């Protein structure tokens, strides 16, 4: 089972980390998060209960298009498209383009692990 590791860090800390990696001063450890959010709230918004249920449905039923997924969820395809594009930016879903403009969603991970420091940046 593949797990996506997610972390929370301020925008400033993410920039510092990226620059340190680019300059060769920091080598990311194998267990470091691959995806970063700036706050627990932003993480929770993208992975709301409704969106987690959507990811689970995609993983369980493997819809071959957004239209099929829309029919299964009762949501409009345009709404699903926006939601899935947001989740694709974070790696939570992959959108495969097929024939005639069909888009097939795929969930590459079955679990998401969050790393959250106890001290809150204010």
Q: What would the keywords be for this entry?
A:
single chain, 122 residues, alpha/beta, Arc Repressor Mutant, subunit A, 3-stranded parallel beta sheet, two-stranded antiparallel sheet, 5 helices, 5 strands, 18% strand
What would your notes on this structure say?
The structure is a single chain. The chain has 122 residues and is of the alpha/beta class. The protein has a single domain, classed as Arc Repressor Mutant, subunit A (Orthogonal Bundle), CATH 1.10.10. The chain contains five helices and five strands. Helix 1 links the parallel strand 1 and strand 2. The mean pLDDT is 91.
The CATH superfamily is known as Winged helix-like DNA-binding domain superfamily/Winged helix DNA-binding domain
Strand content of the residues, in percent? 15-25%
**CATH third-level topology:** Arc Repressor Mutant, subunit A
Q: Number of DSSP strands? A: 5
The residue fraction in helices comes out at 40-55%
From the N-terminal CA to the C-terminal CA, the straight-line distance is 36 Å
- Assembly state of the chains shown: single chain
pLDDT averaged residue by residue: 91
Main sheet attributes: strand count, strand direction, barrel closure: 3 strands, parallel
């Amino acid at each position: 089972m593949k797990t996506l590791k997610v972390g929370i860090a301020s925008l400033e800390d993410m920039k510092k980390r990226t620059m340190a990696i680019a300059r060769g001063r920091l080598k990311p450890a194998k267990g470091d998060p691959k995806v970063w959010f700036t706050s627990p709230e932003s993480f929770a918004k993208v992975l709301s209960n409704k969106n987690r249920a959507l990811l689970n449905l995609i993983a369980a039923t493997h819809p071959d298009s957004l239209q099929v997924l829309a029919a299964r969820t009762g949501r409009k395809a345009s709404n699903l498209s926006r939601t899935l594009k947001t989740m694709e930016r974070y790696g939570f879903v992959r959108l495969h383009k097929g024939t005639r403009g069909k888009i097939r969603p795929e969930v590459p991970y079955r679990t998401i692990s969050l790393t959250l420091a106890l001290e809150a940046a204010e």
